[in-house]
Specification:
The complex is a heterodimer of chains A (189) and B (172). Chain A has 189 residues and is mainly α. Chain A has helices spanning 14-34, 39-46, 52-73, 86-103, 107-115, 119-145, 158-161, 166-186; strands spanning 10-11, 84-85, 152-154. The chains are: A mainly alpha (189), B mainly alpha (172).
């Protein structure tokens, strides 16, 4: 661990911080232009009346996946899929979902909502997220010995799960996403 | 240019651009777009202000490392980028109560802010339990085809859809 003076923060190198800021500004700009910084749009998605959020996410995943796997094939990038377990991802995911609907923003879009001027996000939501993550940090040692390890599957990816070539899965997932988007548009959603 | 001053762009244009942005973050910064770890670090850093450096020794913060990093700047950037976009399109407004909420529960700021606080606690806790959020799992993880992320993303929406219906169809 780096040494530091008590009470001061440690920082990553400046170029990384600058790139993070640049990418964040672009991401925030896009989220706002897509309407994803708005409670009404997010609740519309969860109430299944407005499919903007799903359309943004699926087209981002489709585009991102093709590019990332192409760059992986060329040896330009390395993937770092998160490790997981049933206890982590199913239970944590469901808890997250409950909070998602009650708050009406998620950790990324709440930053965008604050930039958009939404005070329920800036005052209530932000404080809540900081309390919730702090609570998790306090309980982590106990959770990590038990529930988080249940049904552990490591950093498994779909190609390894199905024991097929990456591109078989990329093409299949891309096909399914396109089909779903086509169906949403045809249904007028 | 219209692109910058329009209040809304097509969700597909936005999604494809976010996908391309993810190529750049992987290629240049070797990192995926993700947000929720930042709030955990920020929470730890705030706790350090009150309780001193021993907070860093908590197992979870030892694992995360309480360093101001790329992702924290990404989240700060989101605030700035959204502000810019909203100002350019005259879509910026100070607002306590969103209209969907107001139509069901009225325009009292306190009720909405209290609910947002409660929702924030739950989503913050859940994001760390699942080890990711709508961006880290929902976009960056699924596009890498991580099993952990596809399961998480599905559960985010299952939990979210059920709870939203409970709030607005039964209570509201």
């Amino acid at each position: 661990m780096q040494t530091k003076n008590p009470g001061t923060a440690r920082f990553e190198d400046k170029p990384s911080l600058l790139w993070g800021l640049v990418f964040g500004i672009l991401f925030g700009f896009l989220l706002q232009k897509g309407g994803a910084t708005k409670y009404d749009v997010i609740l519309g998605q969860l109430l299944l009346t407005d499919f903007t959020v799903l359309k943004i996410m699926l087209s981002a995943v489709l585009t991102g996946m093709i590019g990332i796997y192409a760059m992986k094939s060329l040896g330009w990038v390395q993937l770092n899929p998160k490790t997981g377990s049933a206890g982590m991802n199913v239970i944590g995911g469901l808890i997250f979902g409950v909070g998602f609907a009650v708050l009406g923003y998620c950790p990324g879009t709440i930053a965008g909502a604050i930039g958009n001027g939404y005070l329920d996000a800036a005052v209530g939501g932000l404080a809540g997220i900081l309390i919730g993550t702090g609570l998790f940090a306090a309980l982590y040692p106990r959770l990590n010995q038990g529930i988080l390890k249940k049904g552990d599957f490591g950093d498994l990816t779909l190609p390894r799960l199905f024991k097929v070539n990456d591109w078989v899965v990329v093409v299949s997932v891309a096909g399914l996403i396109l089909l779903l988007l086509y169906w949403l548009e045809r249904a007028g959603l | 240019m219209d692109l910058f001053t329009q209040a809304r762009l097509s969700p597909y244009a936005v999604g494809i651009s976010i996908g391309i942005l993810s190529w750049l973050t992987f290629f240049i910064s070797k990192r995926p777009i993700a947000c929720s770890t930042t709030f955990a670090k920020l929470s730890g850093m705030i706790e350090m202000l009150f309780r001193g450096d021993k907070v860093e020794q908590k197992p979870y913060y030892k694992k995360l490392q309480l360093v101001v990093d790329w992702q924290m700047m990404l989240v700060l950037g989101i605030v700035i980028g959204s502000l810019l976009s909203a100002l350019l399109s005259a879509d910026f407004r100070w607002q306590w109560v969103p209209s969907t909420w107001e139509s069901a529960f009225g325009s009292t700021p306190l009720l909405r802010v209290g609910t947002a606080l409660l929702g924030g606690v739950v989503i913050g806790f859940g994001s760390r339990w699942a080890d990711g959020c709508t961006s880290g799992h929902g976009i960056s993880g699924t596009l890498q085809m991580a099993v952990s992320s596809w399961i998480s993303a599905a559960c985010f929406f299952i939990g979210g859809i059920l709870t939203a219906h409970l709030i607005f169809r039964w209570i509201g």
